[in-house]
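Category: protein sequence paired with discrete backbone structure
Discipline: computational structural biology
Format: plain text, a pair of labelled lines
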Amino acid sequence: MKRILIALAVLFSVQLADAQVTPDAARKALDKAIEATRNEKKAAKPDTWLKLAAAYMDAYNAPMASAWIGAQRQELQLIMKGQKPRSVESVVLGGEPCTKEVYADKEFYFNQNGQLVLINVTRPVVKDALDGALSAYKKAWEVDVKQSKAKKIAAELDVLAKKYLDEGMNSYMFENYAEASQKFEKAAEAAGSAPLGKVDSTAIYNAGFTAWMVKDYPRAKAFFEKCLAVNYYYEDGEVFAKLADVNKNLGDADGARVALENGFTMFPQSQSILIGLINYYVESGSNTDRLFVLIDEAKRNEPNNASLYYVEGNIYNELRQKEADPAKAEELLGKAVAAYDACSGIDASYAFGHIGKGVMFYNIAIDLQEKAANELDDKKWMALTEQFEAALMNALDPFEKAYAASTDNALKVNIAEYLKNIYYRFSSKGAEYEQGYNKYNTIVKEGKAL
């Protein structure tokens, strides 16, 4: 399943639908509320606009028939008496199997546990009801000269912002990314409107991320820059990596470099930023020594931070893979090993120094295995096979140490997968290798570290 980098904190907010009115009643109430705003005296009162906003919200919620995200299928069958789905089918939503129920004015999506995870209204009472509500709330605040309704307007704007987030996530799940970006932007606008005045960094990031997905780079750039302005960086500084990619695609190579370097200063452990920096310096022909200037600055600030030496090992390893000169590649390999060993030496409980070293040699072994598989000359094949086994053996000890150092079950199981494969390769060489294979094969099968 593809990695989803959208901020999933907004996914499927669990809340009851606010309206208990029928679509016809909601339409009539909305028409009445709109008519009231055309009266000059009534239009000067905030309550008139609050009633209009409430009518829009009722119109938005009416087709949902009091359903709510998180409801069980059986619960909805009880409260939706008289409403029967026109059809029921199995679909895939967001990579997960779901059951889709189609009604006259909506679609319900249930997960495998029978829980409602998405409501898609196909026949709204009025188009863009949320936009109508937002305009009405803004107008209510505008005419509320005494600010007597500030608390009420703020609370209702907060509810409205969450509705926009739900709409944005719905569009995202249906892979309508451009539409999702617009909805997330509206969520940020609603949250930021007076008197609520809240910065919704999640909505801002999601608006940028979904714009980036459809390659609307100018729009994505604006939102990622807003994220940085409010000190929102997402996981491991992903905003910096995305902004760098946007700048690169807009032809601003220097802007890409600045974003990556700023991100690296704050998040040196971020693989996205690190790979972006390495690619920038290699592709631009710039001096890669700048990478080590940056890491050395970080190490001076935190000399006992083991993760910085792990990052240094990763830099040498990435550069090694891009190096065409075998002698220089071998030199970089040695420097990577030294950095990974330094990482483990600083903090024996930090497993990633061992993991970095183990993965590096394991990947070298895989590359040699592929070369051997394509080699027709017996002598060359034998030489490549020997190199393959030597590299695989070099990965064994680091992975064993990583397994012993780690306290996280999921990480230990991941490490066990590597160890299982290595021990299997050498299982014919003696009982200790066969025992090693049996041990780690059991851990992988059960998903639980011993």
